[in-house]
């Protein structure tokens, strides 16, 4: 019974999702369904306070952790689900998507994310991530009558199932060598049996890293992201960008720092490669994008690289930096997507931002704020997060990587601020955009609040980052 | 001493004003901006009155814990080196609001809000006492400047704004890496602690950090050869933007050398001394020759800034009292004179809509008051005795001769060229026959514009006749700075 308390947030979300499915036929209003998701998310966060504080924080035979790490990510995932729900109301109405099904999938995907963050066992992590990804396939393709969505869903499905297979293969290899899927058992088996150099274990570590790198869209396992984001509706893309990345990072943090802690040398080399490639390729490829969702997809790839920086030294403070980054990135990217969603059709094309500062100054100012934060210019949260991860790689002795990171952020400034140039420095085109829907305004307000407060008082959120 | 946090109030009052302007209606924006800048000027007055000139310590100090995990405090405080720039910032901001009164007709609220945000960034940069805040204000300055150039600028404003942004951002992110490495190596970002209490860094570390910071400072100054953003940005920016750029933004880089490179990385400074001096001399002479070739008034003044800022960096890296004091004085002078020249260009451009020198001529016949002001500022810019620039250039050149006679010679050459281009400009614009571009009902100044220019005239005269009015503030702090950079043993011999 005490074990179940550790899963309370997940259980609350599953319950909410099941309830939605049961009454699906009668749910007509996307707005009330979205409110249901928000309520469920808040309830899930509150149920997290029931965690035993001080007592043993692992249950189910040590496979589920109820520590501060899990709690931090539970709060983050709940917030992502709530904001994504607020952002998707108008889209569901205009595309005639059944709200109950959509939101049930969002809730279940969030459950999977939470499970991945609390997992202390490779199989549970696999379970959580698969739950998330399975729901995501459907979410990407939920607008069935749109060819581009179908194409995106198929691409995403094929690539993601391949990556899942690799992850599973890696898990089985490391099980074969260590005889365990439990993190703690793996770590002790590796260090006691001095299996550090065992070739099969190295392959296993590498395959697990590949499977997780896919979830966070790190180069060279990123190719699904631009197509999936572009083909999916903007709210789904926002949910994937913020949620899938945070879930992958949460899982990766535990796997690296707990399970494969004795293998630090191997996976830090893998992470350095992934991180450097992601930052460079993401920033450079984003330069030529004219579709906003695609641009934000490449930006999310670059940010995967920045977030990984914190894990490279394998220290608790570095892991905290990555947690901060995942947290801040979720809000600023949800904010940027929120503006895209708020502007409707014109928001998806770069040219739609021409002269926005004259026709909709408030929306333009919010977009500018999120873009500055994504670039990493103070005093925004994006800067504080970037500072934290760069500080941790410098502490780890990788100054070259730090220089690469800031060089990439200069490149990224070029494409982020090109949007600002369009908004502020060109003449308006087309109709004046209408008022933002209430849900979008609320979500943008929350995202902007976090972006500003996180920049001015970085400790507000970093105080909650408990490394695994 | 005051009991309230005077530096915080001075720094953030403009930001509060900017928020208020965005909430107010369009018509009140100008008055609100004027009220805010004047209030900021008034609030800052006790700083100058109660400043203890005999002390080199930080004064009006405020320190509040802020980000303990990075050992960063919110620290404010001024010494003799930063105080003149705070005064310059608040004064030029008032004048910028005044000169934009009729020139800016589009998106007035946003314009003044951006101007006020940049004022906060300027004051904060000079008032902060740790590197983290320094970086914050440094970056905060870029954003409103980017908008000022790109939204309210001239025909090629977008190009100029993006170029400005990319240059300065490239420099400043390298500074960020340096800052983080410094935090890692020393465990502190407090300027005082870094200069005096933390153990001195090894030479290779210092050298790398020097290069990282140089990237940021050299772009801002700008030093030859990373100056190419400056002519575009200055020329395309609206008048107020040009004044802020020339008056304050360029000083940030030189201030960075004084506040960070010299005291914190003294060994690296000695290592890079000769290259820095050579680059400075190159900027002086190259800048002056390029200036001679310009046909656009604003571009001409922009290029002259490169030459003038070459004097400043030259003075700083002579590492002797004359040179450094002259450099700081010349930074103030350049802010006053170049600010004034940009104001003059902006005022006449508003009437004639041309900046081509060829369109002008005989301005004295149609605008005598304007021409008199312009004459005075041109004389000041050329280093005429009795006006402010003379003292600064004299000090820098004498410091240059002492450090390395070749430098003094380069400086003299630069002054000669400077006199040539500025007086030639004056000749072509003000004297001779009335130019083809000078049509218009009334070309001469109105009361608002006279009031805008008069404070700068007064300052030029006061500093010219009584340079001690600025130098008196500097002395104690410069002594301490030179002591930190050359070591206690050497200082007696150097002075």
Descriptive report:
The complex is a heterodimer of chains A (468) and B (495). By secondary structure, chain A is an all-alpha fold. Chain A has one domain (2-462). Chain A contains 20 helices and two strands. Chain A has helices at residues 2-6, 8-22, 30-48, 68-95, 99-118, 122-140, 147-178, 183-192, 199-215, 224-231, 234-259, 264-286, 292-309, 316-342, 356-359, 361-375, 381-395, 399-425, 438-456, 459-462, and strands at residues 58-59, 64-65. The model of chain A has no long low-confidence stretch (mean pLDDT 90). Chain B has 495 residues and is mainly alpha-helical. Chain B has two domains: 1-268, no CATH class; 272-495, no CATH class. Chain B is 75% helix and 3% strand. In chain B, β1 and β2 form a beta hairpin. The model of chain B is unreliable at 488-495 (pLDDT under 50). Chain A binds chain B through residues 357-358, 361, 372, 377-379, 383, 387, 390-391, 394-395, 399, 402-403, 406-407, 409-410, 413-414, 417, 420-421, 424-426, 457-459, 462, and chain B through 66-70, 107, 110, 135-136, 139-140, 142-143, 146-147, 150-151, 157-158, 161-162, 165-166, 169-170, 173-174, 176-177, 180-181, 183-184.
């Amino acid at each position: 019974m005490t074990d179940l308390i550790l899963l309370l947030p997940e259980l609350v979300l599953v319950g909410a999702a099941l309830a939605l499915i049961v009454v699906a036929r009668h749910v007509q209003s996307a707005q009330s369904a979205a409110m249901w998701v928000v309520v469920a998310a808040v309830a899930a966060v509150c149920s997290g306070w029931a965690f035993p504080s001080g007592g043993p924080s692992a249950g189910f035979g040590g496979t589920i952790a109820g520590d501060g790490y899990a709690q931090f990510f539970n709060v983050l995932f709940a917030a992502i689900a709530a904001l994504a729900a607020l952002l998707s109301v108008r889209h569901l109405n205009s595309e005639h998507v059944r709200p109950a099904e959509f939101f049930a999938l969002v809730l279940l995907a969030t459950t999977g994310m939470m499970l991945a963050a609390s997992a202390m066992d490779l199989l549970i992590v696999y379970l959580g991530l698969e739950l998330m990804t399975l729901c995501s396939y459907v979410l990407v393709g939920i607008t069935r009558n749109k060819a581009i969505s179908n194409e995106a869903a198929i691409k995403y499905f094929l690539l993601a199932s391949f990556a899942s297979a690799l992850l599973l293969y890696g898990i089985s290899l490391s099980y074969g060598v260590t005889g365990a899927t439990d993190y703690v058992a793996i770590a002790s088996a590796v260090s006691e049996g001095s299996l550090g150099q065992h070739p099969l274990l190295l392959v296993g570590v590498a395959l697990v890293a590949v499977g997780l790198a896919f979830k966070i869209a790190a180069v060279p396992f990123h190719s699904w992201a631009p197509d999936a984001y572009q083909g999916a509706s903007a709210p789904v893309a926002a949910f994937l960008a913020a949620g899938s990345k945070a879930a992958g990072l949460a899982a990766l943090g535990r796997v690296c720092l707990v399970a494969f802690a004795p293998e630090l040398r191997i996976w830090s080399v893998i992470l350095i490669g992934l991180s450097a490639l992601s930052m460079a390729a993401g920033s450079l490829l984003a330069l030529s994008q004219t579709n906003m969702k695609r641009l934000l997809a490449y930006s999310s790839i670059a940010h995967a690289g920045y977030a990984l920086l914190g894990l490279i030294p394998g220290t608790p403070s570095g892991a905290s930096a990555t947690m901060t980054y995942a947290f801040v990135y979720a809000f600023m990217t949800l904010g940027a997507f929120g503006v895209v969603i708020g502007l409707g059709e014109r928001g998806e094309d770069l040219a739609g931002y021409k002269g926005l500062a004259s026709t909709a100054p408030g929306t333009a100012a919010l977009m500018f704020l999120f873009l500055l934060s994504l670039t990493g210019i103070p005093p925004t949260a994006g800067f504080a997060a970037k500072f934290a991860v760069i500080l941790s790689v410098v502490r780890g002795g990788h100054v070259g990587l730090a220089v690469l990171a800031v060089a990439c952020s200069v490149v990224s400034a070029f494409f982020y601020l090109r949007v600002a140039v369009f908004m502020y420095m060109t003449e308006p085109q087309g109709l004046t955009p209408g008022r933002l829907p209430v849900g979008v305004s609320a979500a943008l307000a929350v995202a902007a609040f976090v972006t500003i407060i996180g920049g001015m008082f970085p400790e507000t959120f970093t105080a909650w980052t408990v490394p695994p | 001493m005051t009991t309230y946090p005077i530096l915080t109030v001075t720094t953030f009052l403009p930001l509060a004003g900017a928020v208020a302007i965005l909430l107010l209606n369009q018509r009140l924006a100008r008055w609100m901006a004027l009220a805010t800048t004047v209030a900021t000027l008034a609030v800052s007055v006790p700083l100058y009155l109660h400043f203890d000139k005999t002390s080199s310590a930080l004064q009006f100090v405020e320190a509040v814990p802020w980000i303990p995990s990075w050992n960063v405090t919110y620290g404010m405080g001024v010494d003799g080196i930063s105080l003149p720039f705070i005064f310059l910032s608040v004064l030029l901001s008032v004048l910028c609001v005044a000169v934009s009164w009729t020139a800016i007709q589009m998106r007035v609220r946003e314009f003044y809000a951006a101007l006020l945000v940049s004022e906060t960034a300027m004051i904060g940069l000079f008032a902060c006492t740790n590197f983290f805040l320094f970086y914050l204000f440094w970056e905060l300055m870029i954003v409103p400047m980017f908008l000022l150039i790109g939204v309210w600028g001239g025909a090629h404003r977008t190009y100029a704004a993006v170029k400005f942004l990319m240059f300065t951002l490239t420099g400043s992110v390298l500074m960020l890496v340096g800052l983080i490495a410094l935090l890692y190596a020393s465990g502190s970002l407090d300027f005082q602690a870094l200069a005096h209490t933390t153990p001195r860094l090894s030479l290779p570390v210092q050298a790398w950090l020097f290069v990282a910071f140089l990237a940021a400072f050299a772009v801002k100054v700008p030093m030859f050869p990373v100056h190419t953003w400056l002519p575009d940005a200055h020329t395309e920016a609206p008048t107020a933007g040009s004044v802020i750029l020339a008056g304050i933004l360029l000083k940030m880089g030189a201030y960075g050398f004084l506040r960070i490179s010299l005291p914190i990385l003294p060994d690296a400074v000695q290592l890079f001394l000769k290259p820095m001096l050579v680059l400075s001399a190159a900027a002086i002479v190259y800048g002056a020759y390029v200036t001679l070739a310009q046909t656009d008034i604003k571009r001409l003044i922009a290029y002259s800034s490169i030459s003038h800022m070459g004097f400043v960096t030259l003075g700083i890296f002579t590492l002797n009292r004359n040179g450094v004091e002259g450099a700081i004085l010349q930074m103030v002078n350049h802010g006053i004179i170049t600010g004034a020249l940009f104001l003059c260009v902006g005022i006449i451009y508003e009437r004639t809509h041309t900046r081509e020198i060829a369109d002008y001529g005989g301005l004295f016949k149609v605008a005598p008051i304007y021409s008199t002001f312009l004459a005075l500022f041109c004389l000041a810019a050329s280093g005429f005795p009795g006006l402010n620039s003379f003292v600064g250039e004299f000090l820098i050149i004498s410091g240059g001769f002492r450090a390395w006679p070749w430098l003094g010679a380069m400086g003299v050459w630069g002054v000669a060229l400077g006199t040539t281009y500025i007086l030639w400009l004056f000749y072509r614009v003000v004297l001779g026959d009335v130019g083809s571009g000078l049509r218009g009902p009334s070309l001469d100044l109105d009361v608002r514009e006279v009031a805008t220019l008069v404070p700068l005239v007064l300052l030029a005269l006061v500093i010219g006749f009584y340079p001690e009015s600025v130098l008196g503030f500097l002395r104690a702090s410069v002594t301490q700075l030179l002591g930190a950079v050359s070591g206690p043993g050497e200082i007696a011999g150097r002075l």
